[in-house]
Amino acid sequence: MTSPKPMYERPHVPIPPPGPKSRALLEKEKRLLYSAWSADKTVPFILKAKRGWLLEDVDGNRYLDMVTGWASTPLGARYEPVLKASVEALWESGGVECVSYITDYRVLALAEKLIAIAPPNMTRVAPDTTGTEAVEASLRLARAATGRYFIITFHGSFHGGNYTAGTAGPTSPDVGKGLREYVHGFIHVPYPTCYRCPFGQTYPQCGLTCLRYIEDVILRYEVAPEQIAGVLFEPIQGENGVQIPPDEWMQGLYAMAQKYGWVLIDDEVQTGFGRTGKMWAIEHWPDVQVDLMPLAKSLSGGALPIAAVLGTEETMTADDELYLGGTFAWQPAACAGALAGIEALEQERVLENVAELERIAREVMLPWRETYALVGDVRIKGTYIAVEFVRDRERKTPAVDEAAAIHQTAVRKGLVGIYENGLWWIRLLPALNMPPELFRHGLTLLEEAIADVERRAA
Ligand SMILES: Cc1ncc(COP(=O)(O)O)c(C=O)c1O
Questions:
Q1: CB of 69 closer than 6 A to ligand 1?
Q2: Once rounded to an integer, what is the mean pLDDT over residues 226-255?
Q3: Cα 332 to chain center, whole Å?
Q4: 70: Cβ below 6 Å to ligand 1?
Q5: Gap from CA of 271 to ligand 1 centroid (Å)
Q6: Into how many domains does the chain fold?
Q7: Could you give the maximum distance between any two Cα atoms of the chain, in Å?
Q8: Residue range of the domain that includes 406
Q9: What is the pLDDT of residue 27?
């Protein structure tokens, strides 16, 4: 009996990447772009086209896309209602407009929609173009609302790449290099990275040492609570390998913010719009109320760059002289795409699909912690997924070379996830509407890659 034909086009990699065309272009890339651009590359091909859940390289190979434009094409590529809305708006509006000067009607339609789906205490929105800008805008809003200066942020967070956001959250010293020496006003404290507790403890016996550190160390020795404007945090750390805080930690942070009058800035740039199984990741903690939410990536619906800050009446009306955003913020065509994307999220039961993908991920991936010596930890929340590789389980020695080899092997088999040089985890960011059958296939490819590398290492 022959097996049934797959319903969806599958990845197919007949030419081991980089194929000849990719190789020539990768060489050119090294010459044409600034050096760090190429030094950081871990994807061994050049992209030609994206369709649905697949990437196609210039040599004709097809890969399953579990990068999704770094979580920016939540509905897969060429999602028709979004692209159509954007193209039509581009044509009707005539092109670029500086909407902070001449307001396009689509700006108001999107603002209204965002406020309608926001947590109930959020009543206003500030337009931006990138997540980095939205984070910077949030910091300015928090400082304006409180008249205070310091911001607490967390080790391992990522909030963007400019001087301010790059200083707020460098995931590693190299990300913060050349930035931190110039920008002041941030206090970095440990995040609850429980698989590798910075205090060498285990949750829940630890009693949340990482949270107590803020009061016991920072407020005691560094700054008084009334000098602190707010706390900038990722509700689940993404770039740091999907670190999911314990419920008590989030509740404790909220209680502290209430006690001292700190503005809570919940960076939902990567987690927002359903990525973790809820519209906003902070909804996993229903008792917690935040004041500002920077958004970007999935807000685009997969069409054009767009970002925003959602905020409370108090934080958004404290200063009438703040200029945020810029010429390109909230282009009419980007607004139309974003609106169509949000409508699709609501109408197409996308969150139900995320729940199904999460169920499959748990069923398939959690047992890897027993099956494969290289797998130290698997962390999953919705479609926010990371596998951490270790050389030995006892000491949790990072398996950097092995993680790199697993990534390269997976790509050759047809799965592209996120692997960055020097790190020892692979992240998966599938489209929220990826068909479960394709997602399962992608996990099989990753598992085969882990098994291959483990066999080679033995
Ligand atoms: C949590 C978080 N905040 C902010 C940013 C910066 O967004 P952008 O790259 O759009 O500037 C990112 C980007 O990955 C992110 O993950």
A1: no
A2: 98
A3: 25
A4: yes
A5: 10
A6: 2
A7: 73
A8: 20-65+350-457
A9: 97
